[in-house]
Amino acid sequence: VFGLSSVAQVVLGRGDFGQQLSINLGFGIGVTMGVHAAGGISGAHLNAAITLTHCILGNLPWRKLPAYLIGQFLGSFTAAATVFGLYYDALYDYTDGNFTVTGPTATASIFSTYPAPYISLLGGFFTEFMGTVMLLLGILIIHDEKNNGALKGTQALLTGILVLGIGLGMGLNTGYAINPSRDLPPRVFTAIAGWGMDVFTAGHHWWWVPVTAPILGSLAGVLIHKLFIDFHNQPVPQSGNEKGQTVVEAS
Questions:
Q1: Which has fewest Cβ within 10 Å: 40, 50, 80, 247?
Q2: CA–CA distance from 218 to each of 6, 82, 131 (Å)?
Q3: What is the CATH class of 1-231?
């Protein structure tokens, strides 16, 4: 809700009610609040790529995967519907009731990501891949108590700042989805709500890139952290290991 509504305000306000920084801040604040809201209950699994990575690594039972994915899908889909209702009148005024994916009054990008006109499919894939690599590296570092982990209670804020940093540096090419759960459900909503199937064909059928690239980027981020940081960490007392394992699972 924070992220999508910030995009809506910037686009529909024609630049008079915020800029790109507003969008980055909105998503950063949303992630921080999401981690605070769900961290103690489910470990704050807000990202399908990270959830799948935890299952592959054995940190999360596979039987829990459907519940997490359904929860992520419903949350993101409902957020898109909420922002649509919140800004329906502004959307109608901005587009004269013609909801389009491309063109001078395109509004589909309020809800999901689309590649910049100059970017190739491969370039867009690499952007999403690298953005997710940095996301995973950052999350693992924040929660790495064997190295130089964040102070207790600051993890949610630092995760939000991490997302803000990714948006500030890697948002130009693709809008930095870095999360299948953030991109696909709102895209499904827009297909239903009036934008049609163009949301799946635009950008050379772009929709599958924000689904697959973050999964591969998540796995690569874990591998890089393991090879260059975790293998070189000093051992800690058993009690510290137990505590660290809990925190890493919660990430």
A1: 40
A2: 26, 29, 9
A3: mainly alpha
Dmax of the chain from CA atoms? 64
| Residue that is written with structure tokens 């207790």 in the block | 152
Calpha distance 194→99 (Å, rounded) = 6
The 8-class DSSP code of residue 235 comes to P
Query: pLDDT class for 238, splitting at 50, 70, 90?
Result: low
In this structure, are residues 82 and 165 in contact, taking their beta carbons and an 8 Å threshold?
no
- pLDDT, one tens digit per residue, over 72-81 is 999 999 999 9
Q: Which residues are CB-contacts of 75 (< 8 A; sequence separation ≥ 6)?
A: 181, 185
Percentages (nearest 5) of helix, strand, coil residues in the chain: 70, 0, 30
Q: Does the pLDDT at position 228 exceed 60?
A: yes
Provide the residue type at 238 as one letter. Q
pLDDT of 234 over the 60 cut: yes
DSSP 208: G
Name the residue ranges covered by the structural domains of the chain.
1-231
